[in-house]
Amino acid sequence: MMNSMLDSLSKTEFISICVQDPRLIKDDLWHTHVDYEICLHTNSMCFRKKSSCVRRRYSEFVWLRHSLEQNALIIELPKLPPWNPFFSARNTEQVTQRMKGLQEFLEIVLQVPLLLSDSRLHLFLQSDLSITRIERCALGKTRYTVAEAIQRSSCGYISRLEYKTSCDSDCESSSSSGLGLSVDTSLPPPL
Q: What's the whole-model pTM score?
């Protein structure tokens, strides 16, 4: 009895997402922004990497929500924390509230099977590509595939390809539908 419970527990798919570690980035003399670390841990077949961490800022979440909305017109997407013209990157309470709202947004998104099939979501969560490069990669306009971008981006491999051509978490988990991408896991070694 105990073994069957353990077996079924180990076979349950999970996706754990955590938005954490807000960091103040100075853009220039007058402008700063906050970026957040997004850590994903999963055993879901929907994801190429089972563990990843990337950094994203609020405006990139706004782009992601808009992109998902365009792709899944029939689904009502969760709201992001509202944009605040008086948001202060130095106000700890505001930064923490936004961070919690961003995490809640991702937790809900990751429970929607249709959204799990969007390559831009995967690139957003598991690659360090810019938004422009995510768009180009998702449209097949790069020398690397979505799978290569996810597998290699944290190693600087994608940057080298572009140049040639011109976390611990105690966060909430959600289960996935099992909808997945089938990709070849054999990649050439980094250059």
A: 0.76
